[in-house]
Amino acid sequence: MTSDRITVETRVRAPVAQAWDAYTAPDRIRQWNFASDDWHCPAASVDLRAGGAFSWRMEAKDGSMGFDFAGTYTAVVREERIDTRFGDRQATILFVPEGDGTLVRVSFDPETEHSRDEQRGGWQAILDNFRRHVDGAPAG
């Protein structure tokens, strides 16, 4: 499904090492991994190595719904690239040095339940929260 992938990206005002840490450390993931203010990420686990598992719990703050976004890391190149598999889908996260900051680009295989625009919007909103977290502004 690679050619059909959806790509979202953001630029953070931090060197790659700091962006990488914010993207991969469970305590940091819990601070930004949600698409809107009425959701949160109460739990995150990371075994950051090829073959290692990840699981990020995403829940509505009112408790009305939630799900685990979980899968396996298929490749990890420290401070450069992460490849994941979740179900029958895959994603690639790239960390590209850009001046005094870092470009973070996420490309993922779409699912069929939601439109491409809805998926792009949701993943971009999460990445925007990541940028606000790294840049020091409140998420959401």
Question: What report would you give on this structure?
Answer:
With 140 residues, the chain is α+β, with helices and mostly antiparallel strands. The chain has one domain (2-37, 73-135): Alpha-D-Glucose-1,6-Bisphosphate, Chain A, domain 4 (2-Layer Sandwich), CATH 3.30.530.20. 26% of the residues lie in helices and 42% in strands. The chain is built from three helices and seven strands. The chain has helices at 16-24, 26-32, 116-135; strands at 6-12, 39-46, 53-60, 66-77, 81-86, 89-98, 101-108. The chain has a seven-stranded antiparallel β-sheet with strand order 1-7-6-5-4-3-2. Strand 4 (66-77) and strand 5 (81-86) form a beta hairpin. The longest helix is centred in the last third of the chain and has 20 residues, at 116-135. The chain is globular. The N and C termini lie far apart (31 Å).
Quick structural summary:
The protein is an alpha+beta fold. 26% of the residues lie in helices and 42% in strands. It has one domain: START domain (Alpha-D-Glucose-1,6-Bisphosphate, Chain A, domain 4, 2-Layer Sandwich), CATH 3.30.530.
Question: Key features?
Answer:
seven-stranded antiparallel β-sheet, globular, single chain, 26% helix, 140 residues, alpha+beta
By secondary-structure content and strand pairing, the structural class works out as: alpha+beta
Shape: globular
CATH architecture term: 2-Layer Sandwich
Beta-strand proportion: 35-45%
Largest sheet: 7 strands, antiparallel
**What do we call the CATH topology?**
Alpha-D-Glucose-1,6-Bisphosphate, Chain A, domain 4
**The first-level CATH class name:** Alpha Beta
Q: Strand order, main sheet: write it out.
A: 1-7-6-5-4-3-2
Task: Please tally the β strands and state the result.
Answer: 7
